[in-house]
Amino acid sequence: MATLAGTSSLHDEYTEHCLELLGSLGPCQVRRMFGGHGIYLDGLMFGLIAGERLYLKVDAQTRPQWEAAGGEPFVFTARGRLVATSYCTPPDEAMESPALMRPWARLALEAALRARAAKPALRNSSTAAQGRARPRGARH
User: CA 58 → CA 12, 46, 65, 106, 135, distances in Å?
Assistant: First the structure.
């Protein structure tokens, strides 16, 4: 399990607890980011810890399930405006055991995998569009 040097023992305990809950997915890693921690599996970020709360990845396909279970989005302020992210809290009861967290962890990982799969398609389509553009100075 990951260890986090230089953080408070309370934060270490909470982070370790979250890693234990998510352990059914495989060996998760934690990286510091923006005053919190990102949670990764095989280099893919699917969760984050901020303000002593766990947030897991959601997308358009899974957001209704998270909202129905009372999930709250991770929100931050940027340039004076609130920005909602694609991360939500799991249900309170899921924080009690790895077995209760398992379905939520899987949903988060699946959302992260879909997001990663969509990125190359977007890059390829913009590259293709650039390839179709006429060279500078070309005439019809």
Answer: 25, 9, 9, 11, 41
On the question of pLDDT at 48 being above 70, the answer is yes
d(C-alpha 72, C-alpha 33), whole Å = 20
pLDDT computed for residue 5 by the predictor: 38
DSSP per-residue codes, 59-76: -TTTHHHHHHTT--EEEE
For residue 72, pLDDT beyond 80: yes
Angle value at C-alpha 3, between 57 and 98, nearest 5 degrees: 50
- Prediction pTM value: 0.78
Cβ-Cβ contacts under 8 Å for 35 (sequence gap 6 or more)? 50
